[in-house]
Amino acid sequence: MNGFTLLEIMVVVGIIGLLSAVVIGSLNTSRAKARDSQRLSDLKQIQFAIGIYLEEYGVFPTGGGKIGEGTANINTAIDDYLPSVPNDPLTPDSNYYYQYEPSLTCNGKDEVVIYANMEGGNNGNGTIVCPEGNSSTYYIII
């Protein structure tokens, strides 16, 4: 007889399925890392725009809120300094967004911060995390 038995075909299909699951899992991890990299880049752009605003007006923008969404004061304040106000790569997912806080207690003092939730479960390579204990949020103190 020429050909394969049913058992041999089932084993091959099982191995292909297992390999596919491993590859798809790796791709999802890579996509999450890419989105986290985009978040870090966006936060740096926002930080730069807020710095220009501070230079021009001598004060930080007032009122906290989600960056890029709605009518938060921060969106109006930095709109002139960016080609477009960035949104999180997963927008409109409500768990991922950029946030501006003009007064957040960090290490015992008020700080001006911007932050984003990261998918990778890290806080961006050791940057100060405030409030302490939230390891999946990346904070930039301005």
Structural class: alpha+beta
Query: Can you tell me the number of structural domains?
Result: 1
Shape by Cα distribution = elongated
**Largest β-sheet summary:** 4 strands, antiparallel
Mean pLDDT: 80
Summarize the amount of helix as a percent range.
40-55%
Strand residue percentage = 15-25%
Q: Kindly report the spatial arrangement of strands forming the biggest sheet.
A: 1-2-3-4
| Gap between N and C termini | 75 Å
The number of distinct helices, counting runs of at least 4 residues, comes to 2
Order of helices and strands: HEHEEE
Poorly predicted runs: 124-128
Radius of gyration: 22 Å
Number of strands: 4
Explain what the structure shows.
It contains two helices and four strands; from the N terminus they run αβαβββ. It is an alpha+beta fold. It has one domain (6-141). It is elongated. Mean pLDDT is 80; it is low at 124-128.
Element layout with pairings:
Layout: H1 6-57, E1 65-67, H2 73-78, E2 98-106, E3 109-117, E4 137-141
Antiparallel strand pairs: 1-2, 2-3, 3-4
